[in-house]
Design brief:
Helices cover about 75% and strands about 0% of the residues. With about 150 residues, the chain is mainly alpha-helical. Bound molecules: zinc ion. Zinc ion binds next to helix 2, helix 4 and helix 5.
């Protein structure tokens, strides 16, 4: 799933769990739980799995995430609460590790990538939605998460 979806789950976790370390760990675990929900990206044709398309998707993701954070900043969410920051970082970490794996295929990143793929593909191997409905589905989740946060 997009970081734009993962980050708000980390914010919610940080709102409820004020211990920053615990918020980080639970945020990290929630990344894998969220990724297990089929969301269309395993149906992407392999011809689009190249640095240019992945880079463009990541850029789009970062820009959207930036706007979501700005929106939350101007609502009365305290984005600088330590547990919210660490919850968000924990929730995004698996995809950041994946990014490192794409750039530098070290042993550690390879291992983390295998764990990521295991959870990500556990259900979507059998039950997957198409790419466009998957995007719409993720946007709906994002809107719901924003409502929960604010
Ligand atoms: Zn992921």
């Amino acid at each position: 799933m997009f970081l734009t979806v993962h980050a708000p789950t980390g914010i919610i976790i940080g709102q409820y769990i004020s211990n920053p370390i615990l918020a980080f760990i639970i945020g990290f675990i929630f990344h894998y739980i969220l990724d297990m929900i089929p969301h269309g990206d395993t149906k992407v044709d392999s011809k689009y799995k190249n640095p240019i398309h992945i880079g463009t998707a990541a850029l789009f993701d970062f820009i959207l995430l930036f706007f979501v954070l700005i929106l939350l900043f101007f609502s009365n969410v305290n984005l600088f609460k330590p547990s919210i920051i660490t919850g968000m970082l924990g929730a995004m970490l698996p995809d950041i590790l994946q990014g490192f794996y794409y750039i530098y295929r070290g042993k550690f990143f390879k291992k983390m990538q295998n764990i990521h793929n295991f959870f990500h593909d556990s259900i979507s191997k059998k039950y997957e939605m198409n790419f466009v409905p998957g995007i719409i589905f993720q946007l709906i989740i994002l809107i719901i998460l924003i409502f929960i946060i604010t």
